[in-house]
Amino acid sequence: MRGEKRFLHMILMSVMMSFLPIQTTHGQQHYTEDPCTVQILVPGLKGEPGEKGLKGAPGRPGRVGPLGEIGRPGLNGQKGVMGRYGKVGPSGMKGVKGDLGDPGPMGPNGDPGVPCECTPMRNMIGEMDILVAQLSSELKFIKNALPSPAAVAGIKETDSKVYLLVKEEKRYSDAEVYCQTRGGHLVMPKDEGANAAVAGYISEAGLSRVYIGIHDRDQEGVFTYVDRSPMTTFTKWRKGEPNNAYDDEDCAEMVASGEWTDVACQPTMYFVCEFDKDSV
Fold first, then answer.
1. CB burial class (10 A; 0-12, 13-18, 19+) of residue 260?
2. Does pTM top 0.85 for this prediction?
3. Mean pLDDT for each 10-residue chunk of the chain (280 residues)?
């Protein structure tokens, strides 16, 4: 910076000297004063810094910066309340039959018999003949009703109906087809007596639930019997049922207590067929 100032000063001096007249006397040069002089303004030295100005107005907002790093996961929340219990699942597979037990000790000899009385004996034989005929009829019915008699848990009768419990798991539609092709339907309890008979049937067989002939597959929320007759006189829904859980429960089951719940139609389950007694 000082070099620049010195260089500028030398230039100004050279310019001023060029305007002064020069006289020579005896070989010497003398400068004479000239009333008309030229004044050249030269910038002064740099002054001291001024005072700091007032703060200006805020500028416009800048652009949104890049996203920061993902923070650490927060603490786990408190455990929620327990949900409601689910429905009873399907029955498990039948266990393997156990080994035959040891024979028990022989019992004592009975009392001597009495002389035969022919009339009571004949009456007893007659009753046994009737019972044998009835059993033969039921056995024939079982053979004709299902392809596998071993799957039949037994027969129950009322004044007007015959109920057949089938221990062969089927989907709802397949179970109804089996009953229809043999002259019946899935059981349709239409009064308390019929419902109690079927519930007792389930309990005696050691089962927890079976398909029954009730559904709302034609119109959601409007349950009818499988023979398309309306349900107007009797129902036995468990509390909170039907609830169409997961929007997929269009069929019905009966549990051992005799109550009904709506269930999905796809799982396989045991079922009860119903036949009119006159047609058996």
1. buried
2. no
3. 58 58 46 56 82 87 88 87 80 83 88 71 77 63 50 70 90 95 92 93 92 94 92 92 90 96 95 84
| Preceding amide of 242 cis, omega within 30 | yes
**Amino acid making up residue 73:** P
Instruction: Provide the token pair at 266.
Output: 């796809």
150 secondary structure, DSSP code: G
Structure tokens at 241: 């049922």
Q: How far is CA 267 from CA 169, 182, 211, 253, 270, in A?
A: 9, 22, 10, 11, 10
Q: What are phi and psi of 193, to 5 degrees?
A: -65, -45
Comparing CA positions, the residue from 210, 220, 204, 205 lying closest to residue 259 is 210
Which pair of tokens denotes residue 279? 């047609």
Say if residues 187 and 198 touch (Cβ distance below 8 Å).
yes
Euclidean distance between CA atoms 214 and 202, whole angstroms: 17
d(C-alpha 273, C-alpha 215), whole Å: 15
Instruction: Sort 164 into a burial class: Cβ within 10 Å, 0-12 / 13-18 / 19+.
Output: buried
* Calpha distance 152→138 (Å, rounded): 12
Q: Which of 179, 171, 278, 182 is nearest to 226 (CA)?
A: 179
The CA distance from 145 to 183, in Å, is 8
Torsion angle of C-alpha atoms 98, 103, 104, 109, degrees rounded to 10: 140
Please measure the distance between the N-terminal and C-terminal CA atoms of the chain and give it in whole angstroms.
Answer: 128
Our CA angle for 267, 269, 275, nearest 5°, is 130
* CA 263/CA 208 separation, integer angstroms: 14
